[in-house]
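Q: Predict the bound structure with BES.
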Amino acid sequence: MQKTEKIPYRRERMSAVSINLQEQIMENHVTFYMEGEKETSVFHGKFLEKWAELSGQGGFRLLVGMGKDEDRESGRVREICACAAREMKERDIREFSCDVGPIVSAWGQEVLKEAAEGIVLGLYSMERLSDQEEKTWKAAFTGIPCDETAQRLIREGEVLAGAVIFARDMVNRPANCLRPEDFAAQITALMEGLPVETQILPLSRLREEGMGAFLAVGESSAYPPCMMVMRYLPKKAGESAGDITALVGKGVMCDTGGYCIKGSQSMAGIKGDMAGGAAVAAAIYALAVNGVSANVIGVIPMCENRIAPGSMIPGDVVRAGDGTLVEILNTDAEGRLILADAVSYALRREHAERVVDIATLTGAMARMFGNSISGMMAQGEEFCQKFLAAAEYTGERFCRVPWYREHEKMIKSEIADIKNVSDSCPAITAGLFIRHFAGEKPWIHLDIAGTADVDRPVFAWQEKGATGVGVLTMYELCKG
Ligand code: BES
Ligand code: ZN
Ligand code: ZN
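A: Predicted complex:
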């Protein structure tokens, strides 16, 4: 058995940037302009257009375009600020100020949150395992009154960006540096000192719970599976009895496909198959740090999908924790197997009222929607509308995918209750497989296979590699 490279997480990475509000501008300074406001032959203020000039003694002034007012959409301020921050990062300018006055007067104070996220994420670089020193940055917002609401919004944005950074760093970590138990340990450390109860269900407990679907995958590796449970329950019973939202994230630390082994071309990025789990932990972290009043639990089934002498093969039938008999026809469709047991555990054992699952689940969804839109399926109109409103607010893009009776039939098994693959509609039936375990409860399914990782950034606040998709929207959904 290969030795695991143990790498402690450098939490400073989540707070490498600090943003404060001040009156005075610094030597290095960013100014934002609406399109058409400052017409010169070199700079027009077009969205994400940049112009740099020297100021005073060696200082540096950067103009960044905001685009047209009518083109305003959520996420835009995050991009404008990230664009400015990236420029500073490239020049290794560690202290700078931004005049956010024009942004706030155009789009309101609330966008300060996005602005802070943009600055922090724009300065993010992929975690390097070989050098231990972290760069730190000081940014200042100028041009707005220094009130308490502004401070609070900036702080909230900083925390959210920090959470996204944690999720990204976990996804970018090589699988041999992050076994299931290491991932659980990192999350336990992340929650230290926060009002979040963490529990790790070890292999023996998974067996006691009869989680045959999860174990079919988990027992394919010499590195044992475990299930991480996080409970953030700030609202007392009575006031909110039974009112728990469960966030359930896929935690496949690496997905080789198992006996239905992936081709070498499809192996790139298999270490990132726990992006859903990372997003869940990050969202709960942000809720707890920001003291949001909502009862939320997180459940992350953690395992590897490999080949072991006795591991599952196509044709096997296993019994899930809720009693459902599952026919396994493809060992590479492992995400739904582990999520089945995690979702039913959240509802049956933790008494959640509604559930969100988030997973790098299907190549089909990725091919359909590319790197910027995640697929979404939902049951329960009210919950669905709340989710879409949250997504509208954050600017993360989700597209709702429908299903009908004919799709429900596609996962019926001749020999068992349901099977883990269908002959057609692979993205839809993957979601429906998980839905089976949510019963009649409000359910949202997020398939982030295409959006969790990017070769080339789509938005200015992204970097090559993990994106941390889902963190912001799940946070806003729970915040309500
Ligand atoms: N983790 C993969 C899905 C995936 C593919 C994520 C590409 C990111 C990029 C998942 O476990 C998987 O292998 N899905 C199969 C399912 C199929 C066998 C029904 C797929 O989509 O090909
Ligand atoms: Zn797979
Ligand atoms: Zn997978």
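A: The first strand starts at residue 17 and ends at 21.
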